[in-house]
Design a protein that fits this description.
Helix content of chain B: over 70%
Order of helices and strands of chain B: EHHHHHHHEHEHEHEHHHHEHHH
Strand content of chain A: 25-35%
Shape of chain A: globular
Keywords (chain A): ATP-binding, Nucleotide-binding
Order of helices and strands of chain A: EEEHEEHEHEEHHEHEHEEHH
InterPro entries (chain A): AAA+_ATPase (IPR003593), ABC_carbohydrate_import_ATPase (IPR050107), ABC_transporter-like_ATP-bd (IPR003439), P-loop_NTPase (IPR027417)
Structural class of chain A: alpha/beta
Oligomer: heterodimer
Largest sheet of chain B: 2 strands, antiparallel
Strand order of the largest sheet of chain A: 6-9-10-3-11-12
Number of domains of chain B: 1
GO molecular function (chain A): ATP binding; ATP hydrolysis activity
Organism (chain A): Streptomyces zinciresistens K42
Helix content of chain A: 25-40%
Strand content of chain B: under 5%
Protein name (chain A): ABC transporter ATP-binding protein
Distance between the termini of chain B: 25 Å
Radius of gyration of chain A: 18 Å
CATH architecture of the largest domain in chain A: 3-Layer(aba) Sandwich
Chain lengths: ~260, ~425
């Protein structure tokens, strides 16, 4: 038996009021692996991200981190484990500058006061690694372009040296060149042994980057695929519901991997 | 004070290796060049929606020039000195409101809380013989408690703060009337501690000048140290010329103020306390983790929550600060008239404090502003009131003019917010 997966979900359920958004979700992400999370609109992808990141904790089910059962009740819990998230809406504070956003909630202090210089230095270093067009560090984020904001959001998630990173449609608002930048970055993260959960509607990206794909449909698991062997048609059929896989069968499928 | 940008475009910073391209340009008179640079700077700031305190300074200048031309006793040392004491009570309250505005919320209870604190002090000290220092502490803590209760209810129920504090406005006003009981008006000890808050002046000239010198030294040394650290770390930094120019600008204002105040009765204790509190809270907001969290909540509650900030804690604390400042302001207001009555904390007090914060440049939409806007806004409001009194203009006109200024401030706020967003999309 190999090392336990970085993150494993078993039978996770989440409901908003009377609506069951997630039912009996299973998922595994290993270190050095990019898992694509696919599904139509309303399939529960973003909710699953929020469950893992502690924004909307699961109602039932087990979350295992490196084989050990953990409770993720608040965003801080996930951060402490080493799970970082780039939300679809980016969740940046528009009035704060780039440095302020990056270090929000983990400010560096010197004699009890904020150490702006040190934070600015680390921001500069991190952004230079991520992108060729480093935005103005002291400009409020609201005045940046959407591509720059995406870069800031990704940089923020990388700041705490996470082991697992959740990317909720990171390229949806980006142009061609920035999409390439993000995709290169995901590749690099995998090479450094991080786990990546990537939500994307772009099958091209998924085929190019992901090792495995997990499909959600109407809040349930609807198939797991090895992206290298499964055909695009197979995966799309699973997303649209042309092939209905009974939820029970996945546990076996999952174990077979 | 907004941090400069890493590039040299706004003239406030230079990179580690400044480009020498400007040298090649045809030489123009230095004045024209620097004016041009300032013009470009102002346009950039205007477009980015970061006007800051520029409009309110312009308004203040207009108000002062107008009243001085109508009656030349307006800018007399006596009137300016009185003005500097009159702004303190309401100004303290406005500082608390700045904190709440930064969250994008409103606190309507500050007037009632200030009256309640004054009543608590008067009843404890005058009617029950509690020592003054103890009565002051209890009164201020009463304000803190009132604010914290409102803050916690607002944070937990997520009812907008203006509704929670509207209920507070009635409740605390009722509690004040209950505390005062049948006594109606209570006169404070004219020689006591609280009376001295607005009655004491440092009559030695040296005190005012020393305070001015200390302020200038701080405003020079803190950025200078920061600059040296950045130079050592090869980071973008402000130019020495900018740091010196800013300190020199403050020096002119501070020493002129000290000179004028000394020509009347010297530095008023009330003004000194006010400026120290404003500067201290400004440091808290800009330089501490707590302050950063306040601004973050104003920029987006959900974003702050996902960055694992304790939203409830910060919101409660902000309303508690506002209640505390309201109580302190209430004591200064009571000190000014050495009495507390059933009308304490009522009337236009709340509106003036709120207007001061907004006129001073703190945004109603949250996330932008500084405690200094309370000082500037109060100066405008009190200058109008004082000028009207000197020129025998009826109060009706005063209300209309103050209303006009407030309206202009809100419009500027909305426009600068819009232009900031449009600038971002470009």
């Amino acid at each position: 038996m190999s090392a336990p997966p970085l993150l494993a979900l078993h039978g996770v359920c989440k409901r908003y009021g009377a609506v069951e958004v997630l039912v009996d979700i299973d998922l595994e992400i290993r270190a050095g692996q990019v898992v694509a999370l696919l599904g139509d609109n309303g399939a529960g992808k973003s909710t699953l991200v929020k469950v893992i990141s502690g924004v909307a904790p699961a109602d039932r089910g087990v979350i295992e981190w490196k084989g050990r059962q953990v409770h993720v009740r608040r965003p801080g819990d996930a951060r402490e484990l080493g799970i970082a998230t780039v939300y679809q809406d980016l969740a940046l504070c528009g009035n704060l500058d780039v440095v302020g956003n990056l270090f929000l909630g983990r400010e560096i202090r010197r004699y009890g006061f904020l150490d702006e210089m040190e934070m600015e230095r680390r921001t500069q270093r991190l952004l230079e690694r991520l992108t060729r067009a480093v935005p103005e560090l002291r400009a409020p984020v609201v005045s940046l372009s959407s591509g720059q904001r995406q870069t800031v959001a990704i940089a923020r998630s990388l700041l705490g040296d996470p082991r697992l990173i959740l990317l909720d449609e990171p390229t949806a608002a980006l142009g061609l060149q920035q999409t390439t930048e993000v995709m290169d970055l995901v590749d690099e993260l995998r090479d450094r042994g991080m786990g990546v959960l990537l939500i994307s509607h772009n099958m091209g990206d998924v085929k190019a980057l992901a090792d495995r794909a997990a499909v959600l449909r109407l809040g349930r698991n609807n198939g797991f695929f090895d992206v290298n062997t499964a055909s695009q048609e197979q995966i799309i059929a699973s997303v649209t519901g042309a092939t209905e896989n009974a939820p029970r069968r996945h546990t076996h499928q999952e174990a077979a991997w | 004070m907004v941090k400069g940008t890493p590039d040299t475009a706004d003239g406030s910073r230079t990179g580690p290796s400044p480009a020498s391209g400007a040298r090649a340009a045809p030489r123009r008179p230095a004045l024209a060049r620097s004016l041009e640079r300032w013009g470009a700077f102002a346009r950039r700031r205007l477009r980015a929606g970061e006007l800051g305190s520029l409009p309110v300074v312009v308004v203040l200048a207009i108000v002062w020039i107008t009243f001085q031309s109508l009656d030349d006793s307006f800018l007399s040392p006596r009137n300016l000195s009185n003005l500097s004491v009159d702004i303190v009570g309401t100004g303290m309250i406005a500082v608390g409101i700045v904190f709440v505005l930064l969250l994008g919320e409103l606190d309507l209870s500050v007037g009632s809380v200030s009256g309640l604190a004054a009543a608590v002090f008067a009843v404890l000290n005058v009617n029950n013989g509690v020592p003054e220092w103890l009565a002051v502490i209890v009164a201020v803590l009463a304000g803190t408690a009132a604010g914290a209760v409102q803050g916690y209810s607002f944070a937990r129920t997520r009812v907008p703060a203006f509704v929670v504090t509207l209920a507070g406005l009635l409740t605390w006003n009722g509690l004040m009337l209950y505390v005062l009981g049948s006594s109606g008006t209570i006169n404070l000890d004219a020689n006591g501690l609280v009376a001295a808050l607005t009655g004491y002046y440092f009559t030695q000239d040296a005190v005012a000048y020393a305070v001015a010198a200390l302020a200038v030294a701080l405003v020079f040394l803190v950025p200078y140290q920061d600059m040296r650290r950045r130079v050592a770390a090869r980071m973008p930094h402000r130019s020495l010329r900018f740091v010196v120019a800013r300190a020199a600008g403050l020096a002119v204002v501070a020493f002129a103020a000290a000179f004028v105040l000394n020509r009347f009765q010297g530095l008023p204790l009330a003004l000194l306390i006010f400026l120290v509190v404003v500067a201290g809270l400004d440091t808290v907001l800009r330089r501490t983790r707590y302050g950063r969290q306040v601004y973050a909540l104003g920029g987006g509650v959900e974003a702050a929550r996902r960055a694992s900030l304790g939203v409830t804690r910060v919101q409660t604390a902000v309303l508690a600060v506002s209640g505390t400042m309201a109580a302190i302001g209430g004591l200064f207001l009571a000190s000014r008239i050495t009495s507390v009555s059933q009308s304490s904390g009522t009337g236009v007090l709340l509106l003036n404090a709120l207007a001061a914060a907004v006129i001073g440049g703190t945004s109603l939409f949250g996330g932008r502003g500084s405690t200094w806007s309370a000082v500037l806004g109060m100066l405008v409001i009190q200058s109008i009131a004082s000028g009207m009194a000197i020129t025998d203009t009826p109060a009706a006109v005063q209300f209309m003019i103050t209303g006009g200024v407030l309206f202009a401030a809100v419009v500027i706020d909305a426009l600068s917010r819009r232009s900031q967003e449009a600038y971002g999309r470009a």
